[in-house]
Each structure stands twice: as C-alpha cells, then as structure tokens.
Fold each of these.
Amino acid sequence: MVRCHRSYTINLFHLANYEGNNQQGMIKLDHVAKSIPVSRSYASNLLLQLK
C-alpha cells in the first residue's frame, strides 16, 4: 500500500498505468473506472516504489 494523494492510498499490485512525471500524475487501477490523482508531495515516493 502506497499513499499517492492525501485522500487516496493504492495497492501497487492493482496498478495498471501511471501517466505523468515526477511532479504529479494520474494512476489507472485494474477494475476501477476512475483515474486517481497523484499529488506533488507524494509523486517522488510513488516513483521510487515503482522501480
């Protein structure tokens, strides 16, 4: 589980797509229609977890 926004925590096993850069972006999860925002303060930590 990784926090990607103040209001959202995601499970990386369900990550389908990440669009954006190291400042902010959007996440698409498996079986979820809505895209989840990634805030600037959590983007760098999220990218480290993805590597």
Amino acid sequence: MLSQVPRSRMYVAAAVAAVVLVSVAVVLIVRNPSGPANAGSDSTVAAAPSPTATPSEKESTSSSDSEDDEAGKPSDDNRALGLKAVATTSPGVTARLARIDSVQATASLPGEIGGPALAITVKVKNQTGKKLDLGLGVVNAYYGPERTPAVSVASDGEVPFPASVADGESANGVYVFQIPEEARPVRVELDLGNGADVVVFKGRPQR
C-alpha cells in the first residue's frame, strides 16, 4: 500500500499541470483571438477622422464668405436712386447731387491719377431742428459695369463738407474722382455717418 501512494500523487500532479496549461492557453486565445490582424484593425479605428469640420474646411468656408462681401463695392443695387433724385438719409436730412462737372484733374499727391475726372457737388439740407454734424460725411464713386472704385483726386478742386450745418440751412461738398470718359454708368455713394442711411445715386452723367 505504501508503494502506491507516491504513484497516485504523481498522477494528481500531472493532472493539475495539464489543467493549468489548458487554462493559460484559453486565456491567451481570449485576449488575442486574431493575432496581428486585430492590431491592424485597432490602428484603423484610432485614425478615423472626427465628424467635426477640419481647419482647412473652415478656412474654405470663411474664404467663400469674404468673396461674397467684397470690400470696396457698394451694395443694395436695387435701391439705387437716379443721379437727379433727392434722397432722405435720416429724418429731416435730405441730400442730392447738385452738379456733376467734367474736368481734367491734375494729380499732385501720391496715389492720385490725373486726367478725365468728374467733380461731384453734393448738397445736404438740414431740417432736423438742430445743428447737423457733417464731420463724418464720406462720398465714394464707382464706374462701369464692374463697379470699379474711382480714385479720388483730392488735391484738385475738392472741397469737403463743413464740420456742421445749422438747422434750416444747406451745405455743399465737392468731390473729384478720376473716371474715364467712356465709363458708364457712374455710381455715387453717400454716407453722412451718425446712423444715417447710406444712399447710392446711379446713372449716366452728361459730359
């Protein structure tokens, strides 16, 4: 009987060792069922792009918006008035183009261009009941179907608006723009500032 005890213990130890080996194998298979192929799958998921817009997409959208709102171009073409119209820029304030004269401008300041030009006299009438500030008044001109901005020739005959105009009075400003003789039509944009509406006069001036 004593000689059989060690042999049975050997059998038990062998069985335990076999169970341990099988358990380890099962654990390894469960943790990595597809081997190297599964590692490749994980890397693909990690590289998937986010559903939000990338920086390049945002820049492209911003670029298209800025092209729609091109700088230096007047807007609201359907609201443009004729060159002889009287515009109301704010309650009690009216403006019109009193004169448009063809001149030969002489450039003397950097950026100016001499040659055929228009001297545009803008008349503003104040009936607000108080003094009207004209210090922020701006006049711009454009010409041709492409609405090309006209270059101001401030050194040759330009007389800006006075700082203000009293109630019941009118004030003039003369603005000279280099505009080719063949350019048609002409647009004049007036902004008196202080919340006044920007008005656009459009037409074909007589030269």
Amino acid sequence: MVFYLIYTSKPRVPMTPEVVEDITKASIRNNLRDDITGMLLAIEGHYLQFLEGNEKKVLALLEIIKSDVRHKDLIVWVMGFQEKRIFTEWSMGSWMLSNDELTKLSALDDISGFIKNPQNADMQSIKFLSMMNSLLKTWIAHEPERSKKLREGMSN
C-alpha cells in the first residue's frame, strides 16, 4: 500500500514559471532521495499537489511545505492509502495552467471543479485518484518533451 495526500495552498510570492520550476527542481532532488512521487499544479493563485510514497516521509515533506515561505493557507483535503502509485515515472512533475487553459481541457474538468469547490465530497478518495490518472495522461499529451526529460531523469 502507498500513502497519498492532496493539498492546496496559495502562493505567498508571485506565481511565475520560474518559481514553479524552482519548486519542481528542488522537489525532484529531494523526492528521489525519499522515494516520493507526485504532481504539482499551479493554477492562477492556487497550488494543488498530489504526493505519494511512504507515509512518514510524505507527512515529513508536508511539514516542510507548510513552513515554505512560498506557500500560505495550506489545506490537506484528502489522504489515505492506495494499492499502487499513480506517478511511477518520475519523482515530481509540474504544470502551470491558467483557469482558461484548465477549462479548455475536458480531461481536467474535475480538477477545475475541485479548485472552485474543494469541499465537494464527490471529489474525495477514489474519484480524486481517477482525476489524478486523467491529469497524468493529459499532462503527458500536452507536455511530451518535459515528460520525457522527467522520465529520463528518473533512470539516471
């Protein structure tokens, strides 16, 4: 069984591609060491992150994120155990989207709904895991070069 959690936070500093890339690079380095995988979405004033791995290591990482000066108003929405990892190909992927881009990608309708109303009980647990699978497939389709680089980075 693999532990997972999903949280949202708001940026304390302006959300730019450079900030998201800095977070991603640090996450890749640290997550490789701790065998944590996941995905970070940066969507106009919100971060949404899915983390999976050993429960103690993921929860320790969450405490680090809570103290990170780039995040505020962090809320954990879902946590639990699943049979296997969703993000097996890399330690951390990231995708910066505008609300407009998010609504144009039908595979991400559920994420758009969650960002608008994260307390919606329908978005918890199994449906959220399905949503993360859709996110992964959509991201790979829209970011094939970044996806390839991340997969290659995991094999080094």
